[in-house]
Every structure is written in structure tokens, then in C-alpha cells.
Amino acid sequence: MKTDSRFARFAVAVAMMMLSCSAYAQQWYHVELVVFERFSGANAEHWPMMGQIRNGTVSPQMANNYIQPAAVDSLAGVAQRLKNASNYRVHFHKAWQQPMLSKASAKGVQVSSANNLVEGQIKLYRVNYLHADIDLWFKENGAEKSNWSTASPDGVELGGPRNPHLAQIRRIKKNELIYFDHPRLAAILQISPVAAPAAAVSKSPESYSLPDTANSDAAQ
């Protein structure tokens, strides 16, 4: 029994040491996102009826073991050119730092514009390669959610505003500009490797390094 107890304590100590080393080995990324409106003249009849908005569970302003705030940097020039153009309007431009988790462990990062027109989330995760799952609503025709009837198993849509909905999943790679295209609401994303923040490495969650090569593609 004494030998088993000593072995158990030894195993726990080794496990804790491995977790500590793993925390320092996590690969973090600087993430920068610009969301902008395109003046396309498309009619609201083309947009889907707005349902439940997926809001992220963390925000770019938070500072914890999953996310750290950061200054906008790599996309500053892109955002300024969009602002100077007459057919675009920037609604959201923020940056943060985070590690890349598995799809099951990843958290959505809240995307909310100061004028409350853009709302939703972006989730970054790794399944062999790094992916970005963006889900944003442009509430130009109101923010009231759709109502549903429980009269049938599938539900019956009773009404609600029709708004542009940017929902795409893209496979991405580091330092590449990723463009999420949409007739009304579009976005540009870039991620770059950075050192793990000192405030986060002691409690850093599971993470993976991003492969050097990956082909960009879209999955609607």
C-alpha cells in the first residue's frame, strides 16, 4: 500500500510538471478583424429572417487564460482605405490574442459594433488546420428576433426583420489576409503568431500550433 501511495504521488507530480511545461509551449496568435458594410443596393427581400444571434462567450476586451486584449496593428491600413472609400463603411475593427484550441474547446469571440448594427461572433479552432467560423448579423432592418410557433415539430415562422447574415467557415493560415465575402456585410481577418502572454501561460488551456501550409477554402 505504501508503494502504491508513493507511486500515485509521483505520477501526480509528473503530470503537473507536464501540464506546466505545456502551458509555456502554447502557440498564441494576434487576431485582427475588420467588419464593414458594402453599399450594394440589395433589397431586404433577399435577406433571411433574423433568428437567434450567436454571441460569443468572451470579448476582445477580456484578459484571462483564453484571451488577451491587443492593439490594432496589421489591418490598420486596410481599415483606413475602407473608411476613405465612398462605397464602404467600417463598423468593427478590433484585435486580441488567443491560443488555438480544438473545435470542441474553442470559444466564440463576441463581435459587436459600437452602433449596435453588427452583432455575432467569430470562433477560431483547429481540426488539422486552423479554421475561422464567422457568424454575424447586420441589423439594418431592426433587431427583433423571429417568433416561432410550436404547433408543428418543425415550427412555423411567424415574422421578424430580414437582415443580411454573414455566416461562413474558412480554413486559414498565419499571416494571410482572409476575406469573408457578402453582398452587404463583409469581413477581413488576419492572424499572426505571437509569444504567449505572461499573464496567461500559467493557466493556459489546451492548444495546437498552426501548420505552415494550408489551402484556403470556404464551407458554407
Task: Report what the structure shows.
With 220 residues, this protein is α+β, with helices and mostly antiparallel strands. It has 3 helices and 12 strands, in the order αββαβββββββββαβ. It has helices spanning 2-25, 76-84, 198-201, and strands at residues 28-38, 68-70, 88-99, 108-112, 118-127, 129-138, 147-149, 156-159, 165-172, 178-180, 185-194, 217-219. Strands 2-3-1-11-10 form a 5-stranded antiparallel sheet, with helices on one face. The protein is globular and about 70 Å long. The protein starts with a helix and ends with a strand. The model is unreliable at 14-25, 206-210 and 212-220 (pLDDT under 50).
Give a short summary of the structure.
This protein has helices spanning 2-25, 76-84, 198-201; strands spanning 28-38, 68-70, 88-99, 108-112, 118-127, 129-138, 147-149, 156-159, 165-172, 178-180, 185-194, 217-219. With 220 residues, it is α+β, with helices and mostly antiparallel strands. Strand 5 (118-127) and strand 6 (129-138) form a beta hairpin.
